[in-house]
Design a protein that fits this description.
By secondary structure, the chain is an alpha/beta fold. It has one domain. Helix content is 26%, strand content 18%. The chain has eight helices and eight strands. The strands form two sheets. Strands 1, 4, 5, 6, 7 and 8 form a six-stranded mixed β-sheet that branches. The chain has a two-stranded antiparallel sheet with strand order 2-3. α5 crosses α8. The protein starts with 11 loop residues before the first strand and ends in a 6-residue tail after the last helix.
Length: 238
């Protein structure tokens, strides 16, 4: 059984996917979790992270409640992103802990993100601020195109759990490929996608398929794991 370090005896911050008010897979299912709201935080409840070493022109403001918690659990969904992100899994879910604006400061950090040609690298970079103890990816249903709020729904009937966010995202992308997904996510190696590539550069998680173990509880799960394993390392065949 998965035993994430840092949970026992600590306060735990749960980060749901609450991008929209739409039902899952657009957002974390309310039956699973009541979404947290960060919009009301005061100025001193945001920590500014400097721009140095990132593609954020003025750095970014990150929610202190997540930083001050004994452990963070990142609960995300499996879906594509029809705008600049291409996909929105655990790395992208962390962007929800970055302020759009901070009280008494008119600068719009989300405008920096959404207008940048380096958007996918910036998504990975905010993950330097906080390391989750556990990632839970709800892939019972998924958007295999469109997203983040609407798209074509597939039903993998899977939940991924892991302590390495890069590994979870790589396996999640393999699952999207297995279901049939967008051209942007289907080309080349998963490891060459900018979010993943930048996350590896920043040592946020595993750097190769050989370092990923997929553990399942039954034969149907093992069959899917074998299919996913074949997609982790190499580019899809033409």
């Amino acid at each position: 059984m998965l035993q994430p370090p840092g949970l026992e005896g600590n306060s735990v911050f749960l980060k749901p996917n609450s991008n929209t008010a739409d039902p899952a897979p657009a957002a974390t299912d309310p039956i699973l979790l009541e979404a947290l709201v960060l919009d009301e935080l005061e100025r001193d409840e945001w920590r500014h992270v400097a721009a140095e070493g990132t593609h954020w022109p003025r750095g970014y403001a990150f929610a202190r409640p997540a930083l001050d918690a004994g452990a963070v659990v990142n609960t995300c969904c499996l879906k594509t992103h029809r705008f600049g992100g291409q996909f929105t899994l655990s790395l992208k879910n962390t962007v929800g802990l970055v302020a759009k604006t901070v009280p008494v400061d008119s600068h719009n950090y989300m405008a920096d993100l959404h207008s940048s040609p380096h958007q996918r690298r910036m998504i990975a970079e905010v993950n330097q601020a906080c390391t989750p103890a556990l990632v839970l990816l709800d892939a019972v249903e998924a958007f295999v195109d469109g997203g983040p709020d609407r798209g074509t729904i597939a039903r993998p009937n899977v939940i991924l759990a892991g302590t390495d966010r890069v590994a979870v995202d790589v396996v999640g992308i393999a699952l999207l490929r297995l279901m049939g997904t967008t051209a942007a996510l289907s080309r080349g190696s998963i490891w060459d996608l900018e979010q993943i590539q930048r996350a590896v550069e920043l040592n946020l998680g595993v750097d190769s398929a050989e370092r990923i173990d997929i553990v399942t509880a039954d034969m149907p799960g093992q069959t899917m794991a074998d299919q996913l394993r074949r997609l982790l390392d190499k580019a899809p065949e033409a």
